[in-house]
Amino acid sequence: MDIKKFKFLKFILCLVISAKIFAFDFFTPFKEAEKGDYIILTINKTYTCLSIFERTENRLVLEELTFLQSKLNPKEAKKHFENLSQPASHTILEIDIDTKACTICYDVLNRMFLDPKGMDSILLRLFELDFKLMKKDERRKVGVLDLESPFDNRPVWNPSYYFQGESVKGRTCEGFRAIIPQDIKYLGGKFVEMYIDPKLKGFCFPVWLQIADDAAAFKVIPVDMGKNFQSKMSKLPRPLPCFASQLNHQPSSILFEFETTYPIQSHRFFFYDLKTLKVIPAKINKKEKIRINRYAIELESLPQKSGEHGIYSTLEEEKDLIIECIQSCKF
Q: Measured at the alpha carbon of residue 296, what is the angle toward residues 295 and 302, in degrees to the nearest 5?
């Protein structure tokens, strides 16, 4: 290989490796988050508790509680939210781990599902940002600047914080920064900084979060964080699954689209004779995800001259739930 080409490829490889080392995907720790992890923030004169409600291999469920109060003691913050009877808002979000997209948004207070595309949760916004590790000269410093020295030798600032209601100080934290997209009102183009304590192994939330220029329109201050938050909700309500397209009859199979927020592998499909009501388990030839919560299903046809049949689906998690297709099929 030509020596110039080799040096150039080596240079490109170093750039790629450096970019990966200094980049940080804010969502990555949440892929291993533990149920009950929580952080309590004060945001624009409101208090918000974000907690991990549930995590599976493919889905992350977050609970968000908000209430209005002038002051909240960090030592009592967790217990206050666990016993909160009249929150200003109470929302549960389910996020697809592969795409980071919100798949379910349930308003607990009004007992209704909201359009996931319209959600503007602070965490969902942070998941989209491209964070970079801050260099020493980019971080805040503490102490008096020596104007006679050509270098700024002051130590970098590290946040103190509360964990499980107890004050934590003197930890060396890693700082990351990202630019907020211009489409976010009042904050577009500004820097958001967050700090992570490497000693908090397995904890998904940052220990500090702030807008770098202290924007008056949006202030975020962590109050407390920790483990084992106890939710009053026992499980996330889910929209009913449904057959989402016309049945497409092929020579040896039936094709259709099926919409569900449950794991598709937990669904079973059946034919039943409209005259005798005899049930026949359907053989699934293919289950293919075509977009979030929607799948293309191919069932093997029954033998010819079997008569007119209906199709329905059941769930392993919900034994009493039966989802029936309004169309029938003839073989």
A: 130
